[in-house]
UniProtKB/TrEMBL annotation:
Complex formation: Component of the FACT complex.
Full protein name: FACT complex subunit
Lineage of source species: Eukaryota, Sar, Stramenopiles, Ochrophyta, Bacillariophyta
This protein's GO CC annotations: FACT complex
Family per similarity comment: Belongs to the peptidase M24 family. SPT16 subfamily.
Job description of the protein: Component of the FACT complex, a general chromatin factor that acts to reorganize nucleosomes. The FACT complex is involved in multiple processes that require DNA as a template such as mRNA elongation, DNA replication and DNA repair. During transcription elongation the FACT complex acts as a histone chaperone that both destabilizes and restores nucleosomal structure.
GO molecular function list: nucleosome binding
Acidic residues bias spans: 291-348
GO BP terms: DNA repair; DNA replication; transcription elongation by RNA polymerase II
Basic and acidic residues: bias regions: 349-362
Main location: nucleus
C-alpha cells in the first residue's frame, strides 16, 4: 500500500530545494515526500512531526523549512531527528565576497534590486507552501502548525563550537542556519541556570536542564551580558524558572545527585522536619558560601587588629598633641621676650651708639705707635 496516496488534485510543493542532494518537496494526505534529483525519496509523516519551523530570509543567505521529529528516521545511512529543506537566496561564496563595486554603480544597484526581489519571491513561496501544508494536514485529521522565529528576541551564543544567532519560537529555542542544528523543545526544559554571572565577566553561560534528569542539560556558552535581562524576561513569559551563579558547575555530578533524591521538590528531608532548599533553589547556594567566608574573615581580621590599630591611632594623637603643646610653649616664650625687650626707638639709639663706639675703636687701632726713648 502506498504510504502517500495521490490526491485527486495536484499536490502543493516546493521545487529546486536543497537537502543535500537537491530535490522537490511535496505535501500529500498523510505526510511530506522529498524526491531528490537522483530519484531518492525521504518520507516525513505528519504524525511524526513534533515541531515545524518556517524561517524567512532576511539577513541570512537562505530561506528554509525545518522539521523536528518525534522519532528519528533514516536519511541515507544515518538516523536523523532534524530534517531541513532550504533554498539559497545568495550563493555562499558571493555572500562572503567583500569585493563590492561603487554604491552608485548601475550594475551593483541592479544586482541588489534582483536580490531583494528574489528574497521576497522565495519568502512568499515558502510561506504559501507552509499554509497549504497546514490546510492539507488539517483536512486529513492532523495538527500541524509552522512556527516563525522571533528575531527581536534572538541573541548570539555558542551551543556547539561557534558563535551563532539563537532565536526562540513559540515552542523551541533554536539555531537552524548552521550545522549541527540546535533545537531545544521548551516543553522538555525543567529549569534554566545562568553560570559565570559576575560584574567582571563580559559574557555568561546558559544551562537548560532537561525534565528527564538522566539526560545531560543543553548548554549555550558565551552569551553577551547585555542579553541577560531580555532572556530572563522571555523565560518569565514562558513560565520557566531560572537561577544564576558566579561559577561553572559539574552538571554530571549534580544530575546524578538529583536523580537519587526522592524528595527533590520538597523543602524538608526524609524526617519531614529538617529544612532544605526545594527543587533547583539549591543552585543559588553555589558561590554564596565563598562570599560569606570572605566577609567573616574580614570581620575577624578587623576584630583582631582593631585594638592594635586603635592604640596606634591614640599614640599618634598623643604625639601630635605633645608637639602642639611644644609649639604653643615656644610661641608663648617669644611673646614674653617681646614683652620684656626694648621698643624700636630704643633699639635704633642703641644701634647708633654701638656704631659710634666701633668706629672710635677702629680709629684708635689705626694710629701709629710711638717709639720708646732710651734713657
Amino acid at each position: 500500500m502506498n504510504a502517500f496516496p495521490v490526491s485527486p488534485i495536484s499536490p502543493c510543493g516546493l521545487f529546486s530545494l536543497a537537502v543535500r542532494p537537491k530535490g522537490n518537496l511535496e505535501a500529500h494526505t498523510n505526510g511530506l515526500r522529498f524526491i531528490s534529483t537522483r530519484g531518492e525519496m525521504v518520507d516525513i509523516m505528519y504524525a511524526n512531526i513534533k515541531h515545524a519551523v518556517f524561517q524567512p530570509c532576511k539577513s541570512e543567505i537562505m530561506v528554509l523549512v525545518h522539521f523536528h521529529l518525534k522519532n528519528p528516521i533514516m536519511v541515507g545511512k544515518k538516523k536523523q531527528q532534524d530534517i531541513q529543506f532550504f533554498t539559497e537566496v545568495v550563493d555562499a561564496s558571493q555572500a562572503v565576497d567583500g569585493n563590492r563595486r561603487s554604491m552608485y554603480d548601475p550594475d551593483e544597484m541592479d544586482d541588489e534590486q534582483r536580490e531583494r526581489q528574489l528574497r521576497k519571491r522565495l519568502n512568499e513561496a515558502f510561506k504559501d507552501f507552509c499554509r497549504k501544508v497546514e490546510n492539507v494536514a488539517r483536512k486529513n485529521g492532523y495538527t500541524l502548525e509552522f512556527d516563525i522565529p522571533y528575531r527581536d528576541l534572538g541573541f548570539m551564543g555558542n551551543p556547539n563550537k561557534e558563535m551563532v544567532m539563537i532565536m526562540p519560537t513559540l515552542n523551541c529555542l533554536c539555531n537552524l542556519t548552521e550545522t549541527p542544528f540546535f533545537v531545544v523543545d521548551l516543553s522538555n526544559v525543567d529549569h534554566v541556570h545562568f553560570e559565570r554571572v559576575t560584574f567582571m565577566s563580559k559574557a555568561f553561560d546558559m544551562v537548560l536542564i532537561n525534565k528527564d534528569f538522566t539526560k545531560q542539560p543543553w548548554r549555550v556558552d558565551m552569551i553577551p551580558n547585555e542579553e541577560k535581562d531580555s532572556i530572563q524576561e522571555w523565560l518569565t513569559d514562558m513560565e520557566i524558572s531560572y537561577t544564576e551563579g558566579p561559577m561553572n558547575l559539574n552538571w554530571k555530578s549534580i544530575m546524578s545527585t538529583v536523580v537519587g533524591d526522592d524528595r527533590f521538590y520538597m523543602d524538608t528531608e526524609e524526617d519531614e522536619v529538617t529544612q532544605k532548599e526545594a527543587g533547583w533553589e539549591f543552585l543559588r547556594m553555589f558561590g554564596r558560601d565563598d562570599g560569606s567566608d570572605e566577609e567573616s574573615e574580614e570581620e575577624s581580621g578587623y576584630s583582631e587588629n582593631s585594638g592594635q590599630e586603635e592604640s596606634e591611632e591614640e599614640s599618634e594623637e598623643e604625639e601630635d598633641f605633645d608637639s602642639e603643646d611644644d609649639d604653643e610653649s615656644d610661641f608663648d616664650a617669644d611673646d614674653d621676650l617681646e614683652e620684656q625687650g626694648m621698643d624700636w626707638d630704643d633699639m635704633e639709639r642703641e644701634a647708633a651708639a654701638d656704631d659710634k663706639r666701633k668706629k672710635r675703636d677702629g680709629d684708635e687701632d689705626d694710629r701709629p705707635q710711638k717709639k720708646k726713648r732710651r734713657r
